[in-house]
């Protein structure tokens, strides 16, 4: 038997004001994306923004549907838009934020497992990791370099891609 250990690493900033200007701007783009959220059932808005290598910013938000499984998270809306329209322009950084009037958010929200898997595949497609900024409005920001820290046991089977 071999005893193995997995460690994750991330940086925590106490507020957006501690971030470099480019990261602040991307977090603010994720906040703007909240305005397009269609979340009449959960009342939980999520916004995402992608900074591409060219400088292009893509914004997206969660889209709910009365048939609950038919909705889609903001991260996947953004990433599928990237894959369909900008796959030759690598994602450098992704910012994600959330907002609800039902309770106070005191820490950043994290992406669901399905979103993390899609993020991982996007990293594989572009052959480079992306930085992820998880931003709690009026609270901390968590910065992670690459999806591996979120989902250490990513599902990949290289023989499926041939």
TrEMBL record:
Q: Which PANTHER family match?
A: CYTIDINE DEAMINASE (PTHR11644)
Origin organism is: Mucilaginibacter defluvii
Complex formation = Homodimer.
Q: Source organism lineage?
A: Bacteria, Pseudomonadati, Bacteroidota, Sphingobacteriia, Sphingobacteriales
> What family does this belong to?
Belongs to the cytidine and deoxycytidylate deaminase family.
Q: What is this protein called?
A: Cytidine deaminase
What CDD domains is this protein classified in? cytidine_deaminase
Q: Which InterPro entries match?
A: CMP_dCMP_dom (IPR002125), Cyd/dCyd_deaminase_Zn-bd (IPR013171), Cyt/Deoxycyt_deaminase (IPR050202), Cytidine_deaminase-like (IPR016193)
Report any Pfam family annotated for this entry: dCMP_cyt_deam_2
Q: Which residues form the CMP/dCMP-type deaminase domain?
A: 21-158
């Amino acid at each position: 038997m071999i005893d193995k250990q997995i460690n994750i690493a991330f940086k925590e900033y106490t507020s957006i004001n501690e971030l470099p200007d480019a990261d602040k701007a991307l977090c603010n783009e994720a906040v703007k994306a909240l305005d397009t959220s269609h979340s009449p059932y959960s009342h939980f808005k999520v916004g995402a923004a992608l900074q591409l290598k060219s400088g292009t910013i893509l914004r997206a938000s969660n889209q709910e549907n009365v048939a609950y499984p038919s909705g889609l998270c903001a991260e996947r809306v953004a990433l599928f838009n990237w894959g369909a329209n900008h796959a030759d322009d690598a994602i450098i950084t992704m910012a994600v934020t959330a907002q609800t009037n039902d309770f106070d958010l005191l820490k950043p929200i994290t992406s669901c497992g399905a979103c993390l898997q899609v993020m991982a595949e996007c990293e594989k497609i572009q052959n480079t990791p992306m930085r992820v900024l998880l931003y709690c409005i009026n609270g901390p920001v968590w910065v992670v370099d690459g999806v591996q820290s979120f989902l250490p046991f990513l599902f990949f089977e290289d023989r499926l891609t041939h």
